[in-house]
Amino acid sequence: MSCHEIFSHLRDTTSSIAVCAFLGIASVVLAIFTVFGNSLILHALRKCQTLQSPTKALFCSLAFSDLGVGIVVYPLSAVFCFAAVFNNIEVFCAIQYPYLIVAYCLGSVSFLTMTAISLDRYYAFTLRLRYRQVVTFKRVVFLLAACWIFGLIWPFSWLLSHTISKIVATTIIFCCTVITSISYIKITVGLHRHQRQIQEQQTIPAPQQHGGNHFSIGQYKKSLNTMILIFFLLIACYLPHCTVIAVSMVIGNNSSVMLAWIITAEFIYLNSLLNPLVYCWRMREIRREVLIAMPCFTS
């Protein structure tokens, strides 16, 4: 669909123009909070000494992609919406492709990083003593570099074919969701089996330590629950938009579908604000560093 058709759909009714105005204002406000929150998280990760380097690199990648949403995607979304409100089709068409490309780029990086985090948690549980030998900082950085390079390149397929772009996006979301879900399911089953063995033996105290201070079941379960929560939030934010895309491929595009498209896109960007809140809520070491960086709250 051309930008002229999208523009006409968004200006089809007074209510759609009002929704665009609301989304434009909300994008500006949420951009400020998203940049502020993820900047604090990156500062806290830099100061935090308790997280292992590979895990810290994964968290930093996710925080950087969320920060990019606040710095780039939200402002472009605001301009996109305000151009429709003020009937400026030149700006609307000029901003459409940069907006979609950057949004797809950061969205794919977030999904790939979440998949890498799930695999990191899986290897931490299955490898135990060998975890530090197998999951090294260099290997994680190499993997993250590949995720970012792929995320920067593939969205340009939108310029070649909208169909190809949708197929690639659907494939990425499906594969990442399946891999992440399987990893967390296997970990959860393994933890329950491990706890049953402890209860049967009645000889190993809980929480159990493997290899000295290297692996703590209690700390691992807390970290795992945090990452599962972040993953569920990611799925919850992306699911409405994916549903709209599926509906548009079946019934075609009209004013209602296009309006639903830009509304559900805002839910995706909202995930970049929710992640810092989860970090501060669930991770004590991150929360402590954030409070130190904000003297007005330390009292």
Which key terms come to mind for this protein?
mainly alpha; elongated; membrane; GPCR_Rhodpsn_7TM; 299 residues
Q: Give the averaged pLDDT, no decimals.
A: 84
Radius of gyration from the CA trace? 21 Å
Side by side, the strands of the main sheet go 1-2
Portion in beta strands? under 5%
Number of separate helices = 12
Q: What distance lies between the first and last C-alpha atoms, to the nearest angstrom?
A: 55 Å
Structural class: mainly alpha
Order of helices and strands: HHHHHHHHEEHHHH
Low-confidence stretches: 204-214
**Quaternary structure annotation:** single chain
Beta strands, count: 2
Share of helical residues? over 70%
Question: What's the layout of helices and strands?
Answer:
Blueprint (H helix, E strand, L loop, with lengths): L2 H8 L3 H34 L5 H33 L3 H39 L3 H4 L2 H17 L3 H4 L1 H40 L7 E2 L4 E2 H35 L3 H28 L1 H10 L1 H4 L1
Antiparallel strand pairs: 1-2
Helix pairs in contact: 1-10, 2-3, 2-10, 2-11, 3-4, 3-6, 3-10, 4-6, 4-8, 4-9, 8-9, 9-10, 10-11
Pfam family, one: 7tm_1
Keywords: Cell membrane, Membrane, Transmembrane, Transmembrane helix
InterPro entries: GPCR_Rhodpsn, GPCR_Rhodpsn_7TM
